[in-house]
Amino acid sequence: MRNGEAGLRHWFENQGTLARQVSTRLNLSPGNAPVTNAACRFARASAWAAGSEDRAAHFLVLCVLVEVRSDAGVRFLKNVAPGHCGVRATGSDMSTIDDVSGVLRSLAPHHLAEDWDNVGLLVGDRERPVKRIMTCLTVTPESVQEAIDQQVELIVAHHPIPFRPLKRLTTEETTGRLLLLLIDAGIAVYSPHTAFDSARDGINQRLAEGVGLLRIQPLEPIENDPDGLGAGRWGELAESLALVDVAARLKEFLKIEGLHMVGAPAQPIQRVAVACGSAGQFLGAAQQHQCDLLITGETSFHTCLAAAADQIAMLLPGHYASERFAVESLAESLGRHFPELVVWASQEEADPLQWI
Ligand SMILES: [Zn+2]
């Protein structure tokens, strides 16, 4: 057997027959503890019988087959094949932070992120196993406490932390305090941010579909993107609606009670641009596409004045509402990819702005 992971993979590929025989003989099914124990005993006996080199390999095959996660299994592997423990000893079939990162990268490819952004795994060890994942919009004292209380191994936070380069990491300011709490608790942080905003099924696509747009296209296409993706979206309503009716539709989709509106309630709207978060800078792009309305989470007073002067309407449901719905659906997507993991969207984070 060749050394290292490549060698083990090669060995596995040539052990299909043995694996099938063992599987049939033991009637193995994942997650069945008595069967797993039986498999461990069988592995031990067959491994010792097979000679030194194959001991670890036999056991690893069984780990793959029965999803051995027991301490006994890992101890056995460490005794028999200490040299291979780094490969899969933490759980032959257990999902790692790297596995989850891979799925997140496929849902929100990094090439879609803005140049200034900081996306991907920002805190943590990608080799660590993961059982519990919490998504949230932002890492806050509340979401960090929830993650610690709920013993998660990974937070998928839409907004990056850290975002800017750090020169020191101390408890004297909020970012350092939160990061140190997470690091102490062994919690990793992955942030998809603008890659998720722009992804095929990302926030802006969902927002555009949520208000009923058709023929949806990127507001600012990425040059030569093979999938024709880019930042923001624009599209057309099936029929012209009054601004106030589009607002009602948006409120219903985002499950919110109120929003800010720039424009006359009866203003006819057909072509609509959307850009989640704080994206008033897309006003020019929305105008270039001759949109009647730009929907974004929040923007400045002066951008609202500029929109009003150019008679383009704006709906501003708030930064939180314009993105939070998507971290809830991201938790559902991850749950579907990793049915053995517990995944949820933070229950404790809230919009810091109150609509009263
Ligand atoms: Zn945001």
Characterise this structure:
By secondary structure, the chain is of the alpha/beta class. The protein folds into three domains: 85 residues, no CATH class; 119 residues, NIF3 (NGG1p interacting factor 3)-like (Udp-n-acetylmuramoylalanyl-d-glutamate--2,6- Diaminopimelate Ligase, Chain: A, domain 1); 118 residues, 3-Layer(aba) Sandwich (Udp-n-acetylmuramoylalanyl-d-glutamate--2,6- Diaminopimelate Ligase, Chain: A, domain 1), CATH 3.40.1390. The strands form two sheets. A six-stranded mixed beta sheet has the order 5-6-8-9-10-7. The chain has a five-stranded mixed beta sheet with strand order 1-4-3-2-11, sandwiched between helices. Helix 3 runs antiparallel to helix 4. The chain starts with a helix and ends in an 11-residue tail after the last strand. The structure holds zinc ion.
Helix content estimate: 40-55%
Strands side by side in the biggest sheet:
5-6-8-9-10-7
CATH fold label of the largest domain: Udp-n-acetylmuramoylalanyl-d-glutamate--2,6- Diaminopimelate Ligase, Chain: A, domain 1
Structural category is alpha/beta
Give the full name of the CATH homologous superfamily of the largest domain: NIF3 (NGG1p interacting factor 3)-like
Number of discrete helical segments = 15
CATH C-level class of the largest domain is: Alpha Beta
User: Can you name the CATH architecture of the largest domain?
Assistant: 3-Layer(aba) Sandwich
- Cofactors, ions and other ligands in the entry: zinc ion
- The overall strand count is 11
Query: Unreliable stretches, pLDDT < 50, 5 or more residues?
Result: 1-5, 11-17, 19-38, 64-74, 80-92
- Please tell me how large the radius of gyration is: 25 Å
Q: Tell me what portion of residues adopts beta-strand conformation.
A: 15-25%
Q: Quick one: biggest sheet? A: 6 strands, mixed
How would you sum up the global shape? globular
Order of helices and strands: HHHHHHHEEHEHEHHEEHEEHEHEHE
Structural domain count: 3
The end-to-end span amounts to 68 Å
Integer average pLDDT: 83
